[in-house]
Amino acid sequence: MVIEHKLKGYNNFVDFMNTVDSKGKPIYIYFTGDKVDGKSWCPDCIRAEPIVRQQLHHADAEALFIYVEVGDRKTWKDPQCSFRKDTRTQLLQVPTLMRWGGPQKLAAEQCEKPELVEMLFTDED
């Protein structure tokens, strides 16, 4: 079963990624807008999350799935947002689903397409 970790904010993300040991298994990261009372401020994130979660069963059973809230709308929209500036993430949109350390990345409405999400979870290159 995929192991999920939930993180909130850039500093928690960096701290976690600096210490995580996936034991060679894939790491998938889903970046989304913060939730307030269980609902994200980001409409695209609201639509994409159930699709990403439905397709997660295609991932390696021992993979890590890191769920990261990037901040409130004001934080995310700031051009100096750390998630945007970090060369490892280079986020331009939320939601974004990526395979850590690889070229596989889906953003915004791409995360709403089950076939693309499945492909990201099953692609090994």
Automatic annotation (TrEMBL):
Main location: cytoplasm
Keywords of the record: Cytoplasm, Disulfide bond, Redox-active center
Record's keyword annotation contains Disulfide bond: yes
SUPFAM superfamilies membership: Thioredoxin-like (SSF52833)
Keyword Electron transport carried by entry: no
Matching Pfam families: TXD17-like_Trx
Annotated Thioredoxin domain residues: 8-123
Molecular function, one GO term: protein-disulfide reductase [NAD(P)H] activity
GO CC annotation, single: cytosol
Record localization: Cytoplasm
Matches recorded under PANTHER family: 42-9-9 PROTEIN-RELATED, THIOREDOXIN DOMAIN-CONTAINING PROTEIN 17
Family, similarity comment: Belongs to the thioredoxin family.
Name of the protein: Thioredoxin domain-containing protein 17
